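User: Okay, second chain of the day. Same drill as before: sequence in, structure tokens out.
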Amino acid sequence: MKRIILSTMLVAFALAGCSDKTNKTVTTPQGKGERIWSISMNKVCKEWDGQWQGMTVASDGACYFGSSTHSQGHGAGFHKFDPSTWQHTMLAEDMTYICGEQDTPSQQGKIHSPIVECDGWLYFTTHLSNYWKEGIENYTGAHVMGYNMSSGEFRDFGIVKPRYSIYSAIGVDPVRKKLYVFLVPFLDKLYEEDGCHLFSIDIPTGEKKDLGLVVPGRKGAAFWFFVDNRGDVWFSLWKKHYDYENDHGNLYVYRAEKDVIETFVDVLPEGRLIDGTPVTDETLLSQRAWTWVSPLPDRDKCYFTMGCLGGGDERLWLFDPSKDIASGEAFQEVASIGSNYFETAIGGDRLYFIQYEDLQDARTLFSEDEREIDPDSPAYIDRKLHLRSISLKEGDDPNVITDHGPIIDQDGRAARMIMSMAADDQGRVYVYGSWHVKSFKEATLQYLLFEYPNGDLYRLVKRGEFFAVIDTSQPSA
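Assistant: Same drill. Structure tokens below.
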């Protein structure tokens, strides 16, 4: 276990022109007052090409977020945005170096996990940079990382299980000072002979404990944990790309006091569309899983959604583990919101989410696929992503949806994919994703699975990575 203190590299931008001047603090920010203000991340690092989860608004009021890559030569970045100064700080350009693995052939290429907080520290995990043969075969294993918001100190808990990644849940028990992570093997031999494990990490000592095999003989995924105030860890398994025996809507829980994992079989609600139409497609019904989770402040309950990649349900739910689970009493329907995925966040008393303008598009199209379509090709259709929200305030009707308009920044760029999102209680929504670009200076240099005939392994694509702030107090265009 290592503790590392880095001299922070400030990456400031002359916001009026969005130029990338480094090592300079913005003292008179120009972005304040804009409804949507974006910062080009590919002006900092050309190889950052996406971000999934890995964003939070912390107790200090700042937004912390990752920037990820599929590169074979560059790892994930870790950043801070301070809304009081409008300053972007790059806390780490490449997590591979923070993990002390700069001399290894693999990269710690993603922060593909939630970011959780405890006692002034933020905790997150790393993930392999590419899923192709050379990346999987050379991957050393995922690290659990801590970041002290006051001192700027990184704490590396090390590789949890050699050659295993974390895909992608991390949870924290702030009372018992425990972290929980979901370990997944990507190497054929490891997942065929073993499978996916749940691990705990004791924060004071760094001790790691294998809590049990959850998915035998295959890969899998669990994106979110709900760690309740009893210390129990609740989760489901994502099924869009993985099949599991005897799981078509199961809910799992690690009972901390008993040190056992229990399974509630086929208990997750069957889907309904926003208008109440039941989901009848058998494939969708078999894919029921949590695709977004957020605990209430006292951690006795949590909100969750399942959405287009979790069974097709289009409602917001409240889960209360103190009530009967088998009968469905523990699941309370809160509102009908339409399809959603990672791009969901609670800020104050509002739930924010991103959808295509057309709800049918929102339930049938996946923006990560749509972003790959060349905007100059006949196959491209300009489908705008909209920010929407509902009120969670007691007494308000949660089924009244506010449309905050299309996500188009100060220079006319439109968002093409958002998979990382957070919000604060001041009406600010923070997003990271792939946007249209105005020049190739803003474009992502994407790693390719196959070489071009000239031997190139990378190519510029007609999209770029941007971090943006959306001020919902400003009227939409």
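Residues 33 and 474 are 8 Å apart (CA to CA).

User: Thanks, on to the next one.
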